[in-house]
Specification:
4 strands; 4-stranded mixed β-sheet; globular; 55% helix; 6% strand; 330 residues; alpha+beta
Length: 330
């Protein structure tokens, strides 16, 4: 489209927080998670650009800024330049939430890891992978060509930095609700790539006596499902239900539906077993949620939670196919 958005990154940083270097945190776990996730992210950017002509290659920069919101942003800097901006506060928010609910990991995760801290480390990794995958989804699905901004939550900060003549509601396919679900769908594929990569690394390990961080695909699946739930439970605590963003419980159901439908095919494991495992994991979470202050959705049963999820999937697929037919992409 002709009306491409250009965002002044320096101005953005001056308003919302300056970027940290890669090893800003004194917390060793934070450093480890960011190091793993950065390498995984840039491997994916390389993969995205493979086979593209030089003029079609894109650059996506990953930043972490000094800001204590549970939020992330995707900014368009130029025709083929983008930035994903994480907040440093995400780690502390997760630390506090996991700290309050620490014992839940003994009940909903297999006792695969000898040290529970390794399981908690895996939760950090998958939450970060989801947040980054969501923002990457806004970029890769061409949402900047449809709307003026793409943010994970209701924070509309980028609207202050762009041309007032935005494309919001002017594009025939524009719908904030469906764009957010579209980004979540891409985030599911990002999570599954991570799960597949961890599985391959585990199988290539020669020293069978050595346990690596995330070996068993079934334990990792439980962690991925619970990470999705915990993240959206945090969103639910501040969600504006009058906004045009999908409610957090809808996003959770949408993502877990896609995860259980496609995970087995991609990681080449028993599809039926993994699908059942995903469903069992969600049931476990619902059975335990009140004990661990994880009930911000205010939905009492898994049956109520699942209500209308399939319908939302159908609506999104229809939107996605229309979007695809327009050729909107990066």
């Amino acid at each position: 489209m002709n009306n491409i958005r250009y965002t002044d990154l320096k101005e953005y940083f001056s308003i919302y927080g300056m970027p940290y270097d890669e090893k800003f945190s004194e917390d060793e776990t934070h450093q480890i998670i960011m190091d793993i996730i950065r390498k995984f992210f840039y491997r994916n950017i390389i993969s995205i650009n493979e086979g593209r002509k030089k003029k079609d290659k894109i650059r996506i920069h990953l930043y972490e800024i000094n800001n204590f919101d549970l939020n992330a942003s995707a900014l368009q800097l130029g025709k083929k330049d983008f930035a994903i901006v994480m907040r440093s506060g995400i780690f502390q928010i997760l630390f506090d939430e996991i700290g309050k609910n620490y014992e839940i990991f003994n009940e909903i995760t297999e006792t695969y890891y000898e040290d529970l801290s390794e399981t908690v480390g895996a939760y950090y990794l998958f939450v970060y992978a989801y947040l980054i995958g969501h923002e990457l989804g806004h970029i890769m699905q061409g949402h900047h060509s449809i709307a003026s901004t793409s943010n994970l939550s209701e924070n509309r900060e980028i609207l202050n930095l762009i041309n007032k003549q935005s494309l919001v509601n002017q594009h025939p396919l524009y719908n904030r609700f469906l764009m957010e679900l579209d980004a979540d769908l891409y985030a599911v594929s990002f999570l599954i790539k991570l799960m597949l990569e961890l599985k391959i690394k585990y199988k290539l390990l020669n020293d069978k006596s050595r346990e690596i961080f995330y070996g068993d695909i079934y334990s990792v699946t439980k962690i991925a499902i619970t990470s999705i739930y915990i993240t959206h439970n945090l969103f639910a605590k501040k969600h504006n239900y009058k906004s045009d963003y999908p409610p957090p419980h809808i996003r959770t159901g949408f993502m877990t539906w896609y995860l259980k439908e496609f995970l087995g095919d991609i990681v080449n494991e028993n599809k039926k077993e993994l699908k059942e495992l995903c469903e069992e994991q969600m049931q476990k979470i619902y059975d335990l949620q009140d004990r661990y202050s994880l009930s911000a959705f205010k939905i009492n049963s898994l049956d109520d939670f699942n209500l209308n999820i399939i319908e939302q999937v159908k609506i999104h697929l229809s939107y996605y196919n229309k979007l695809k037919s327009t050729g909107i992409s990066v």
